Amino acid sequence: MKPVQPPPELIHKAILRFREKKLSRDRWIAQYGYVRPVIHSDNWGKKFVAIRNRIEWSDKWKYIPDFLLDYIPHVFGKDWFDAQVALPKEDRHPVFQWRAACFHQKAGAAPGAKVVVTPDGLSLSYLSFAFSLFAIEEARRLDEQLLSRLKHPEHFQGAFHEVFAESTCLRAGFQIERENENVRDLRHTEFTAIHNATGQHFSVEAKSKHYPGVLGRPGERQQKLKLHFGHLINEAVAKNPPHPLVIFLDTNLPFKSAHHVYGNDVTVPSRYIRRLSQRISEEHDGRNPYAMLVMTNMPSHYVGPKEGPSPNHVHAMMSENPGTVTGRALQALYDAVPLYGNIPNEFPEV
User: Fold this and answer.
1) How far apart are CA 331 and CA 212, in angstroms?
2) Which string of DSSP letters, residue by residue, matches 23-70?
3) What angle do CA 168, 174, 179 make, to 5 degrees?
4) Which among 15, 123, 183, 264 has most CB atoms closer than 10 A?
5) pLDDT at position 110 over 60
């Protein structure tokens, strides 16, 4: 018996459908990297969202930012949320304050209406952080140790930058393996990143410049900031990791101050960055002690409520002597850094 041949129009329809799905996937990767699209379903007047091995639902989630507004309280827990509500506004956790800014922007909209807004700086900080943490949980890399650090105001900044570094690696198509922090006789980097396409391993260290009164740090915010970052790079290098080192360095500056470090042209290293690179090289026998140094400044948390977000500064330096490091893996990381802050609005087609 001969196999039944599907009608030509059915084959043509299937090919078109396959191409549409591939184009949709390619567009998603171009905007958000290799983060898995949000899995969802509509039933009984509610939106159901699958998150790793659990399901959350609400009748208020029309768009992905609606879901992200509730995502952090669900992950951080009711006790944390209730404790923040009880605190004076100025003493609340930075993430709680960012979330409040999101609700200010939605105020006055009709129930269920589509609200078209450009997020202010604090709202963008919250949504970027929430989507990145969601990506980490989807990749099965959100553990209690990281959550504990994120919930503690004095530990938040370092953990927050680690979320940026991890989510960037995930967007670039890497797997994440955290080090065992309970082994006290070893100096660990934050994690090992493994490129899915090439198998390249990197040891990744996330360093962030701390200032009083910023990102939950105690003290009063200062007007004059010290633009010294070389010691953070040397601290990362001193860990002597087993794989080529990638350093994510957060300079944590207001937008105007960041210009002194990064300059105006993102394609050309500024005078400050050239001097920094030369000094680090001279301190390490004339070589770059890292495979890549990613310097970022994302200053949206510096603005006041309802103020627009300030532009980010990014500069990545690849080593001139990377050894056996594959350029494809480094390029993937380089391309993924600017994707932070891209937030999907519509739930993808099921």
Assistant:
1) 35
2) HHHHHHHHHH-SPPPPEEEEETTEEEEEETTEEEEESS-SSHHHHHHH
3) 90
4) 123
5) no
**pLDDT value for 323:** 63
Given a contact cutoff of 8 angstroms between Cβ atoms, the answer to whether 33 and 336 are in contact is yes
Backbone angles phi, psi at 278, to 5 degrees: -65, -40
The average pLDDT across 314-324 equals 76
> Per-residue pLDDT for 194 more than 80?
yes
Q: For 27-71, what is each residue's pLDDT tens digit?
A: 989 999 999 888 898 889 889 998 888 889 899 999 999 999 999
Whether the predicted model's global pTM rises above the 0.85 cut:
yes
Among candidate residues 151, 142, 135, the one with its CA nearest the CA of residue 81: 151
Q: Output 182-189 pairs: Cβ under 8 A, ≥24 positions apart.
A: 187/238, 187/239, 187/240, 188/239, 189/236, 189/239, 189/241, 189/245
Q: What is the mean pLDDT of residues 245-272?
A: 88
Among the listed residues 23, 57, 27, 24, the one whose alpha carbon sits nearest the alpha carbon of residue 40: 57
Q: How far is CA 220 from CA 95, 148, 193, 215, 324, in A?
A: 19, 25, 37, 12, 46
Q: Which residues of 87-99 are buried (b: 16+ CB within 10 A; e: fewer)?
A: eeeeebbbbbbbb
Residue 59: other Cβ atoms inside 10 A:
10
User: Are 290 and 246 spatial neighbours (Cβ–Cβ below 8 Å)?
Assistant: yes
For residue 203, give both structure tokens.
């040891």
Residue 264 to residue 284: CA distance in whole angstroms: 29
Total Cβ atoms within 10 A of residue 196: 13
